[in-house]
Amino acid sequence: MGSLLRPAALLRARQSNPGSEQLRKIEDQFIVEAIRRQKEIGLDVVTDGELRRRNFMSDFVDAVAGFDTGKAVSRSWSGQGPGAVSSVTGIVTSKLRQRSSLTGHELPLLETHARGKFKVTLPSATQFPAISYRRGVTDKIYPRPSDLLWDIVAIMKKEMQSFGSRGVSYIQIDAPRYSYYIDPKWREWMRTEMSQDPEAALQESVDADNACFAAARQPEATLAIHLCRGNNRSHWYAEGGYDAIAEQLFSSLDVDRFLLEYDDERSGSFEPLRFVPRGKMVVLGLISSKHAKLEDKETLLRRIDEASRYVPLENLALSPQCGFASTAEGNLLSEEDQWAKLRLVVETAREAWR
Questions:
Q1: Looking at 16-20, 154-158, 241-245, which range is the least confident one?
Q2: Using CA atoms, how far apart are residues 41 and 123, in angstroms rounded to an integer?
Q3: What's CA 201's distance to the chain center, in Å?
């Protein structure tokens, strides 16, 4: 999906040498190894594992001034296990100002070592009004969440336009906040805490992401969006099927691929896939990145067959439901578990689409 568990040596190096040239060399070493392992097991598209990032959206926070990362909006997470969730961003306390490229420093190693298709991931602009906007603080600079959203879109568009000149062929936006619109408790939170009409906010979110995708659109580029329900130390914050948003999202988002979470009962049925337009790809996230237990291949094959009732088999693909380490601390499984699950993705896909 994008992120891989950080090796313990990398976590120690980041703690001991934050921001140093020595850390950069250690990151390079582990990224090259991660690319090698992905190619070795047969993945068609590789990533750098987001190994340079503190979390899946820290590329934005690190490159843009205006965040107080010592503060955070609290959220309710669910899940089992000893891992406390991590803070993934901060509060916007001043006008945003881009200081550097969001992802430019990640590309050279991928360009050199991938030797084929590689994926670059970015957080959706819609993430930030949901978790970086605090009443009494942010509204002094951005009166409405919408004002913050469109400032972020402008920064994202500039970044995504730059990918064309770099030949980036697979661009993925990670957009967990669409899950707010499928979970009644979060829809109510939007009304009461954010003073937003969920239906209007949903349409604005689609418009914002489409503006970013339009900036990235190139003849050879694959554009994808990943929709999940939260992923932080094996915890999650939303539940419900895609039914409430499927028709609007699948028909309106200008992407080539939808990467969807379908790993457990929180995900609902495949029936909303009937709204996916012909020709677009659906990547079924059937393999959990949240726990170590390895899924049964026959069950996965049966579920792929079930999904093909709504989307033709040639327009389906298989993946984990989310990243293994949306935060640097990672989910509650081992690297050995992670690679076993990725091997299972490849083995199952080869059997399903032979």
A1: 16-20
A2: 27
A3: 20
**Contacting residues for 75 by C-beta, under 8 A, at least 6 apart:** 131, 237
Q: Which two tokens stand for residue 27?
A: 């990151």
Supply the pLDDT for residue 74: 55
* Residue whose token pair is 């009304």: 191
User: Residue written as tokens 């891989």?
Assistant: 4
Report field, pTM of the whole predicted structure over 0.90:
yes
What mean pLDDT is predicted for residues 95-100? 97
Residue 149 is which amino acid? L
Domains of the chain: 8-352 (3.20.20.210)
Of the candidates 246, 243, 171, the one whose C-alpha atom is nearest the C-alpha of residue 206 is: 246
Question: What contacts 173, CB < 8 A, 6 or more positions away?
Answer: 121, 122, 123, 124, 209, 212, 213, 224, 225, 226
- Within the chain, strands assigned E span 64-68, 91-98, 119-123, 170-174, 222-227, 257-261, 281-287, 316-320
**Per-residue DSSP letters for 28-93?**
HHHHHHHHHHHHHHT-SSB--TTTT-SBTTHHHHHHEEEEETT-------B--SSPPPPP---EEE
Residue 99 CB: number of other CB atoms within 10 A?
9
Residue pair 27/44 in contact (Cβ under 8 Å)? The answer is no
At position 77, the amino acid (one-letter code) is W
Distances in whole angstroms, Cα of residue 313 to Cα of each of 119, 230, 250, 291, 304 = 23, 27, 17, 27, 8
Instruction: Map residue 157 onto helix, strand or coil.
Output: helix
Instruction: Using DSSP, state whether 318 is helix, strand or coil.
Output: strand
Residue with tokens 């012909």: 278
Dihedral over Cα of 74, 75, 80, 83: its sign: negative
